[in-house]
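Researcher: Please translate sequence to C-alpha coordinates.
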Amino acid sequence: MEVVVAGDEGSARLDRVLAAHLASLSRSRLKALILAGAVRLKGAAVDDPAYHVVAGDTIIIDVPEAAPAEPKGEDIALDIVFEDDDIVVLNKPKGLVVHPAAGHETGTLVNALIAHCGTSLSGIGGVRRPGIVHRLDKDTTGLMVVAKNDLAHASLTAQFADHGRTGAMRRGYMAFAWGLPNRQRGTVEAPIDRHPHAREKMAVRQGGREAVTNWEILESFAGRDGKPVAALLACELETGRTHQIRVHLAHIGHPLMGDSVYGPHFKTKAKHLGPQAQAALEALGRQALHAYLLVLEHPRTGELLHWEAPLPEDLLLLEGALKAAL
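Model: Translation complete:
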Protein backbone atom coordinates (compact mmCIF):
# COMPACT_ATOMS: atom_id res chain seq x y z
CA MET A 1 0.00 0.00 0.00
CA GLU A 2 1.11 3.58 -0.67
CA VAL A 3 0.16 6.77 1.14
CA VAL A 4 1.17 10.32 0.12
CA VAL A 5 1.18 12.78 3.04
CA ALA A 6 -1.14 15.72 2.31
CA GLY A 7 -0.13 19.34 2.85
CA ASP A 8 -2.19 19.73 6.01
CA GLU A 9 -0.72 16.55 7.50
CA GLY A 10 2.85 17.82 7.76
CA SER A 11 4.42 17.15 11.20
CA ALA A 12 1.57 14.76 12.15
CA ARG A 13 2.31 11.37 13.74
CA LEU A 14 2.95 8.52 11.33
CA ASP A 15 0.36 6.19 12.89
CA ARG A 16 -2.36 8.85 12.75
CA VAL A 17 -1.69 9.70 9.12
CA LEU A 18 -1.81 6.05 8.11
CA ALA A 19 -5.03 5.50 10.09
CA ALA A 20 -6.66 8.45 8.29
CA HIS A 21 -5.76 7.06 4.87
CA LEU A 22 -6.17 3.31 5.45
CA ALA A 23 -9.60 2.69 6.93
CA SER A 24 -9.30 -1.02 6.09
CA LEU A 25 -6.56 -1.46 8.71
CA SER A 26 -7.14 -0.97 12.44
CA ARG A 27 -4.92 1.33 14.52
CA SER A 28 -3.52 -1.67 16.38
CA ARG A 29 -2.77 -3.45 13.10
CA LEU A 30 -1.01 -0.37 11.72
CA LYS A 31 1.02 0.03 14.89
CA ALA A 32 2.10 -3.61 14.70
CA LEU A 33 3.17 -3.16 11.07
CA ILE A 34 5.19 -0.05 11.97
CA LEU A 35 6.92 -1.78 14.88
CA ALA A 36 7.65 -4.78 12.66
CA GLY A 37 9.52 -2.59 10.17
CA ALA A 38 6.89 -3.02 7.45
CA VAL A 39 6.50 0.74 6.89
CA ARG A 40 9.11 2.44 4.67
CA LEU A 41 9.93 6.03 3.86
CA LYS A 42 12.54 6.87 1.22
CA GLY A 43 13.59 3.24 1.15
CA ALA A 44 14.24 2.94 4.91
CA ALA A 45 12.03 1.32 7.53
CA VAL A 46 10.36 3.66 10.02
CA ASP A 47 9.57 1.71 13.20
CA ASP A 48 8.38 4.57 15.43
CA PRO A 49 4.59 5.15 15.42
CA ALA A 50 5.20 8.69 16.76
CA TYR A 51 7.53 9.66 13.89
CA HIS A 52 6.48 13.06 12.46
CA VAL A 53 5.92 12.95 8.73
CA VAL A 54 6.55 15.72 6.19
CA ALA A 55 4.03 16.95 3.62
CA GLY A 56 4.67 15.25 0.30
CA ASP A 57 6.29 12.16 1.83
CA THR A 58 5.42 8.88 0.09
CA ILE A 59 4.99 6.10 2.62
CA ILE A 60 5.07 2.45 1.56
CA ILE A 61 3.32 -0.16 3.75
CA ASP A 62 4.12 -3.82 3.17
CA VAL A 63 1.03 -5.74 4.33
CA PRO A 64 1.64 -9.50 4.51
CA GLU A 65 -1.02 -11.90 3.35
CA ALA A 66 -3.40 -12.97 6.10
CA ALA A 67 -2.45 -16.21 7.81
CA PRO A 68 -4.86 -19.06 7.04
CA ALA A 69 -7.49 -19.54 9.74
CA GLU A 70 -7.32 -23.31 9.49
CA PRO A 71 -4.44 -24.85 11.50
CA LYS A 72 -1.93 -26.99 9.65
CA GLY A 73 -0.32 -30.25 10.66
CA GLU A 74 3.09 -30.03 12.34
CA ASP A 75 5.57 -32.78 13.13
CA ILE A 76 5.36 -32.62 16.93
CA ALA A 77 6.05 -35.79 18.94
CA LEU A 78 3.09 -37.20 20.88
CA ASP A 79 3.17 -39.66 23.79
CA ILE A 80 0.21 -41.82 22.75
CA VAL A 81 -0.98 -44.39 25.30
CA PHE A 82 -3.98 -45.71 23.34
CA GLU A 83 -5.39 -45.31 19.85
CA ASP A 84 -8.04 -46.96 17.70
CA ASP A 85 -10.37 -45.83 14.91
CA ASP A 86 -12.42 -43.68 17.31
CA ILE A 87 -10.18 -42.09 19.94
CA VAL A 88 -6.63 -41.13 20.79
CA VAL A 89 -5.49 -41.03 24.42
CA LEU A 90 -2.23 -39.21 25.02
CA ASN A 91 0.00 -38.06 27.85
CA LYS A 92 0.37 -34.30 27.31
CA PRO A 93 3.75 -32.76 28.22
CA LYS A 94 4.17 -29.40 29.94
CA GLY A 95 4.37 -26.34 27.73
CA LEU A 96 2.05 -27.69 25.03
CA VAL A 97 -1.00 -25.52 24.29
CA VAL A 98 -4.04 -27.60 23.34
CA HIS A 99 -5.44 -25.55 20.44
CA PRO A 100 -4.50 -22.44 18.43
CA ALA A 101 -5.37 -19.11 20.03
CA ALA A 102 -4.01 -15.58 20.18
CA GLY A 103 -0.27 -15.83 20.76
CA HIS A 104 -0.22 -19.57 20.02
CA GLU A 105 -1.18 -19.94 16.37
CA THR A 106 1.19 -22.85 15.80
CA GLY A 107 3.01 -25.52 17.79
CA THR A 108 -0.16 -26.72 19.53
CA LEU A 109 -1.59 -30.15 20.26
CA VAL A 110 -4.11 -29.60 17.45
CA ASN A 111 -1.28 -29.03 14.97
CA ALA A 112 0.34 -32.27 16.15
CA LEU A 113 -2.95 -34.20 15.94
CA ILE A 114 -3.66 -32.98 12.40
CA ALA A 115 -0.26 -34.30 11.31
CA HIS A 116 -0.79 -37.59 13.17
CA CYS A 117 -4.43 -38.27 12.26
CA GLY A 118 -4.78 -36.51 8.94
CA THR A 119 -8.39 -35.72 8.09
CA SER A 120 -9.89 -38.28 10.50
CA LEU A 121 -10.38 -35.90 13.45
CA SER A 122 -13.91 -34.95 14.43
CA GLY A 123 -15.03 -31.62 13.00
CA ILE A 124 -17.66 -30.86 15.64
CA GLY A 125 -15.29 -28.59 17.55
CA GLY A 126 -14.67 -26.42 14.47
CA VAL A 127 -11.52 -25.91 12.41
CA ARG A 128 -9.58 -24.46 15.35
CA ARG A 129 -10.34 -27.36 17.70
CA PRO A 130 -10.78 -30.55 15.67
CA GLY A 131 -11.30 -33.56 17.93
CA ILE A 132 -10.94 -31.58 21.15
CA VAL A 133 -13.52 -32.49 23.81
CA HIS A 134 -11.65 -31.21 26.89
CA ARG A 135 -8.48 -29.30 27.69
CA LEU A 136 -5.52 -29.20 30.03
CA ASP A 137 -3.75 -25.94 30.80
CA LYS A 138 -0.53 -25.32 28.88
CA ASP A 139 1.67 -26.28 31.84
CA THR A 140 -0.51 -29.07 33.25
CA THR A 141 0.69 -32.51 32.22
CA GLY A 142 -1.19 -35.76 31.83
CA LEU A 143 -3.93 -37.73 30.15
CA MET A 144 -6.22 -36.35 27.45
CA VAL A 145 -8.63 -38.05 25.07
CA VAL A 146 -9.30 -36.82 21.53
CA ALA A 147 -12.18 -37.76 19.22
CA LYS A 148 -11.28 -39.08 15.76
CA ASN A 149 -14.82 -38.90 14.40
CA ASP A 150 -18.14 -37.23 15.13
CA LEU A 151 -19.65 -40.29 16.81
CA ALA A 152 -16.80 -40.37 19.32
CA HIS A 153 -16.98 -36.60 19.78
CA ALA A 154 -20.67 -36.68 20.68
CA SER A 155 -20.24 -39.58 23.12
CA LEU A 156 -17.20 -38.11 24.85
CA THR A 157 -18.80 -34.67 25.12
CA ALA A 158 -21.80 -36.24 26.87
CA GLN A 159 -19.54 -38.17 29.24
CA PHE A 160 -17.55 -35.07 30.16
CA ALA A 161 -20.76 -33.11 30.72
CA ASP A 162 -21.99 -35.84 33.08
CA HIS A 163 -18.61 -36.23 34.84
CA GLY A 164 -19.46 -39.54 36.44
CA ARG A 165 -22.76 -38.49 38.00
CA THR A 166 -24.59 -41.27 36.15
CA GLY A 167 -21.81 -42.81 34.07
CA ALA A 168 -18.33 -44.18 34.54
CA MET A 169 -16.29 -41.07 33.67
CA ARG A 170 -13.49 -40.27 36.14
CA ARG A 171 -10.72 -37.68 35.90
CA GLY A 172 -8.03 -37.74 38.57
CA TYR A 173 -5.16 -35.33 39.22
CA MET A 174 -2.05 -35.32 41.39
CA ALA A 175 -1.62 -31.89 42.96
CA PHE A 176 1.28 -30.63 45.07
CA ALA A 177 -0.27 -27.95 47.29
CA TRP A 178 1.08 -25.54 49.87
CA GLY A 179 0.23 -26.36 53.48
CA LEU A 180 -1.62 -29.35 54.92
CA PRO A 181 -5.43 -29.47 55.00
CA ASN A 182 -6.91 -30.06 58.46
CA ARG A 183 -8.67 -33.29 57.47
CA GLN A 184 -7.84 -36.34 55.35
CA ARG A 185 -10.30 -35.68 52.55
CA GLY A 186 -12.91 -33.17 51.53
CA THR A 187 -15.00 -31.60 48.77
CA VAL A 188 -14.93 -28.05 47.45
CA GLU A 189 -18.32 -26.93 46.12
CA ALA A 190 -17.89 -23.35 44.95
CA PRO A 191 -19.12 -21.75 41.70
CA ILE A 192 -16.50 -20.47 39.26
CA ASP A 193 -16.67 -17.55 36.83
CA ARG A 194 -14.31 -15.04 35.22
CA HIS A 195 -12.40 -12.87 37.67
CA PRO A 196 -14.11 -9.46 37.85
CA HIS A 197 -10.90 -7.50 37.27
CA ALA A 198 -8.32 -9.89 35.74
CA ARG A 199 -9.96 -11.43 32.68
CA GLU A 200 -7.24 -14.03 32.20
CA LYS A 201 -8.11 -15.52 35.60
CA MET A 202 -11.05 -17.43 37.02
CA ALA A 203 -12.44 -16.95 40.52
CA VAL A 204 -14.97 -18.35 42.96
CA ARG A 205 -17.98 -16.08 42.44
CA GLN A 206 -21.60 -16.13 43.48
CA GLY A 207 -23.73 -16.77 40.42
CA GLY A 208 -20.90 -18.56 38.62
CA ARG A 209 -21.11 -22.03 37.09
CA GLU A 210 -21.36 -25.01 39.41
CA ALA A 211 -17.95 -26.50 40.25
CA VAL A 212 -17.19 -29.50 42.48
CA THR A 213 -13.74 -30.89 43.32
CA ASN A 214 -13.08 -33.86 45.62
CA TRP A 215 -9.66 -34.13 47.22
CA GLU A 216 -7.73 -36.53 49.46
CA ILE A 217 -4.31 -36.26 51.11
CA LEU A 218 -1.86 -38.84 49.78
CA GLU A 219 1.29 -37.57 51.43
CA SER A 220 2.47 -34.65 53.56
CA PHE A 221 5.87 -32.99 53.57
CA ALA A 222 7.66 -31.26 56.42
CA GLY A 223 9.75 -28.13 56.09
CA ARG A 224 13.10 -27.31 57.59
CA ASP A 225 11.48 -26.74 60.98
CA GLY A 226 9.74 -30.12 60.93
CA LYS A 227 6.27 -28.60 60.51
CA PRO A 228 4.02 -29.50 57.55
CA VAL A 229 4.71 -27.22 54.60
CA ALA A 230 3.11 -29.02 51.63
CA ALA A 231 0.96 -31.98 50.67
CA LEU A 232 0.37 -34.24 47.71
CA LEU A 233 -3.36 -34.39 47.01
CA ALA A 234 -5.39 -36.66 44.75
CA CYS A 235 -8.20 -34.59 43.21
CA GLU A 236 -11.17 -35.80 41.20
CA LEU A 237 -13.51 -33.54 39.25
CA GLU A 238 -17.29 -33.68 39.23
CA THR A 239 -17.37 -30.70 36.86
CA GLY A 240 -14.93 -29.36 34.29
CA ARG A 241 -14.48 -25.62 34.73
CA THR A 242 -11.48 -23.66 33.47
CA HIS A 243 -8.63 -23.78 36.03
CA GLN A 244 -11.00 -25.59 38.41
CA ILE A 245 -8.46 -27.36 40.66
CA ARG A 246 -6.17 -24.34 40.72
CA VAL A 247 -9.02 -22.02 41.72
CA HIS A 248 -10.58 -24.38 44.26
CA LEU A 249 -7.36 -25.25 46.08
CA ALA A 250 -6.44 -21.56 46.28
CA HIS A 251 -9.95 -20.87 47.59
CA ILE A 252 -9.44 -23.22 50.56
CA GLY A 253 -6.00 -21.78 51.29
CA HIS A 254 -3.86 -24.48 49.69
CA PRO A 255 -2.84 -23.24 46.23
CA LEU A 256 -0.72 -25.35 43.94
CA MET A 257 3.02 -25.11 44.35
CA GLY A 258 4.52 -23.19 41.45
CA ASP A 259 1.22 -21.55 40.46
CA SER A 260 2.15 -17.96 39.66
CA VAL A 261 -1.46 -17.02 38.83
CA TYR A 262 -3.41 -18.31 41.83
CA GLY A 263 -0.72 -18.64 44.47
CA PRO A 264 1.93 -15.94 44.01
CA HIS A 265 1.58 -14.74 47.62
CA PHE A 266 2.71 -18.20 48.76
CA LYS A 267 6.14 -17.81 47.15
CA THR A 268 7.57 -16.73 50.48
CA LYS A 269 6.75 -20.18 51.86
CA ALA A 270 9.62 -21.54 49.78
CA LYS A 271 12.00 -20.32 52.50
CA HIS A 272 10.60 -23.09 54.72
CA LEU A 273 11.74 -25.74 52.24
CA GLY A 274 15.12 -27.38 52.32
CA PRO A 275 17.64 -26.26 49.69
CA GLN A 276 17.00 -29.34 47.52
CA ALA A 277 13.24 -28.72 47.50
CA GLN A 278 13.73 -25.00 46.84
CA ALA A 279 15.88 -25.83 43.82
CA ALA A 280 13.37 -28.39 42.53
CA LEU A 281 10.48 -25.93 42.86
CA GLU A 282 12.45 -23.18 41.12
CA ALA A 283 13.35 -25.56 38.29
CA LEU A 284 9.72 -26.68 37.96
CA GLY A 285 8.60 -23.33 36.56
CA ARG A 286 4.92 -24.32 36.41
CA GLN A 287 1.95 -25.31 38.55
CA ALA A 288 2.53 -28.73 40.15
CA LEU A 289 -0.49 -30.48 38.60
CA HIS A 290 -0.70 -33.73 36.65
CA ALA A 291 -3.75 -35.51 35.19
CA TYR A 292 -2.85 -39.05 36.20
CA LEU A 293 -6.21 -40.87 35.85
CA LEU A 294 -8.76 -41.13 33.04
CA VAL A 295 -11.68 -43.56 33.04
CA LEU A 296 -14.38 -43.53 30.35
CA GLU A 297 -16.70 -45.70 28.29
CA HIS A 298 -15.55 -46.40 24.76
CA PRO A 299 -17.79 -44.30 22.51
CA ARG A 300 -18.55 -47.17 20.11
CA THR A 301 -18.33 -50.40 22.15
CA GLY A 302 -19.30 -49.13 25.61
CA GLU A 303 -16.28 -50.94 27.09
CA LEU A 304 -14.97 -49.41 30.31
CA LEU A 305 -11.45 -48.10 29.70
CA HIS A 306 -8.95 -47.09 32.40
CA TRP A 307 -5.59 -45.35 32.05
CA GLU A 308 -3.06 -44.04 34.55
CA ALA A 309 -0.01 -41.91 33.80
CA PRO A 310 2.85 -41.72 36.33
CA LEU A 311 4.18 -38.40 37.52
CA PRO A 312 6.48 -36.75 34.96
CA GLU A 313 10.15 -36.36 35.76
CA ASP A 314 9.95 -32.78 37.04
CA LEU A 315 7.23 -33.65 39.57
CA LEU A 316 9.06 -36.82 40.61
CA LEU A 317 12.10 -34.66 41.33
CA LEU A 318 9.95 -32.25 43.35
CA GLU A 319 8.40 -35.11 45.31
CA GLY A 320 11.81 -36.61 46.09
CA ALA A 321 13.18 -33.25 47.17
CA LEU A 322 10.18 -32.57 49.42
CA LYS A 323 10.67 -35.98 51.08
CA ALA A 324 14.29 -35.10 51.72
CA ALA A 325 13.07 -32.03 53.66
CA LEU A 326 16.35 -30.72 55.03
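Researcher: Any highlights?
Model: DSSP finds seven helices and 15 strands in the chain.
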